[in-house]
Recover the amino acids of this structure.
């Protein structure tokens, strides 16, 4: 697959400009918003093929700015997004209303239980599939001694449901998402201790699967264990494709960043191997990149493709994925060094992708508006294409 991308030169600071930008890129304009309704953004129409389609424009709209190390993003039923700030411990709401600066950003609450340091703090966030009735929100966060998963209603008390996930200066994981089975999954790190990823009694270096009370699920690989897969270095992004296959990013290894197809009970090799190996008992990555070009975190599906946002690589990698979980053609780099370090990446309700920058942290070079939430729309098959 040979796909060329050209970044649109315009950035918008209001919802009206968001819609104007999509129209300028030949995307069909949406119907007028109803008073009090969520933003009526264009519906998705994303398709990538293995044939050369020539230059493809990607409209990049700045939805919010002035954030500090935004980490997790998850959507409420009204179209607003909940965004965590790693170092401040704040949960922010982005949208659905807008003002002259873009979508309105409001602080929902600050979690005093969070003790940030290194790459730990307030990390992943997930909204209950039954939010309309239970109002439950879940967060992955660091304390002074461990990482935890907690449950709360917005502006309510945080209740820890999983404790004892290993904590260190780096390698704290933090991915959190509900799967197609409506169960909660979490990606942890090995806390820079490679022995934990292979230790079945440790929650470090694992992907966990649990009920909304933080309990193991009956059909997990091992009875009474939260562990779904093992041998991970640092899982900061998990998602599912349209075919219900699970994918996860892997970062922090000395040589390779990875993208893995996650299967029940499988061992992904760390710290026995860095990248692909020859041990049949270990699962090789679906894709690897040099660490300097990757260190990817957020990951999102785009029909037959996957996109992942990278910190050290300062880009989004786009991969065309086959039905059996292999990569077709070569991954394509998007927005390389245009916005600095990219961390979060989620599929929005309208089919666009929302990405977050992570420049207000060591290693970043913040622009005046950083950190930002970006909306990505593909002209040759994205949200709002006419």
């Amino acid at each position: 697959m040979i796909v060329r991308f050209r970044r649109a030169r315009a950035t918008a600071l209001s919802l009206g400009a968001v819609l104007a930008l999509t129209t300028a890129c030949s995307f069909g304009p949406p119907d007028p918003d109803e008073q009090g309704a969520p933003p009526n953004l264009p519906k998705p129409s994303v398709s990538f093929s293995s044939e050369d389609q020539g230059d493809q424009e990607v409209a990049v709209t700045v939805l919010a700015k002035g954030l500090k190390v935004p980490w997790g993003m998850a959507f409420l039923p009204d179209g607003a997004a909940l965004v965590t700030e790693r170092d401040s411990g704040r949960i922010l709401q982005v949208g659905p209303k807008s003002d002259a600066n873009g979508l309105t950003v409001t602080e929902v609450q600050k979690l005093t239980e969070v003790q940030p340091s290194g790459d730990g703090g307030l990390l992943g966030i997930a909204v209950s599939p039954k939010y309309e009735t239970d109002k439950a929100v879940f967060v992955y966060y660091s304390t002074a001694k461990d990482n935890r998963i907690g449950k709360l209603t917005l502006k309510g008390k945080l209740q820890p449901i999983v404790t004892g996930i290993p904590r260190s200066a780096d390698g704290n994981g933090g991915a959190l998402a509900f799967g197609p089975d409506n169960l909660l999954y979490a990606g942890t790190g090995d806390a820079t201790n490679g022995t934990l990823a292979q230790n079945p009694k440790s929650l470090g270096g694992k992907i966990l699967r649990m009920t909304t009370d933080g309990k193991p699920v009956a059909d997990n690989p091992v009875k009474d264990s939260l562990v779904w897969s093992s041998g991970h270095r640092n899982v900061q992004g998990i998602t599912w494709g349209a075919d219900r296959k699970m994918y996860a990013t892997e970062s922090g290894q000395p040589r390779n960043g990875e993208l893995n197809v996650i299967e029940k009970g499988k061992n992904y090799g760390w710290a026995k191997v860095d990248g692909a190996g020859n041990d049949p008992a270990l699962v090789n990555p679906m894709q690897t990149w040099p660490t300097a070009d990757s260190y990817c975190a957020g990951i999102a599906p785009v029909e037959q493709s996957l996109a992942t946002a990278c910190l050290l690589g300062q880009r989004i990698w786009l991969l065309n994925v086959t039905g059996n979980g292999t990569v077709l053609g070569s991954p394509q780099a998007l927005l390389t060094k245009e916005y600095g370090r990219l961390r979060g990446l989620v599929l929005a309700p309208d089919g666009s992708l929302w990405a977050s920058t992570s420049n207000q942290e060591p290693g970043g070079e913040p622009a005046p508006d950083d950190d930002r939430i970006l909306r990505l729309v593909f002209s040759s098959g994205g949200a709002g294409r006419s």
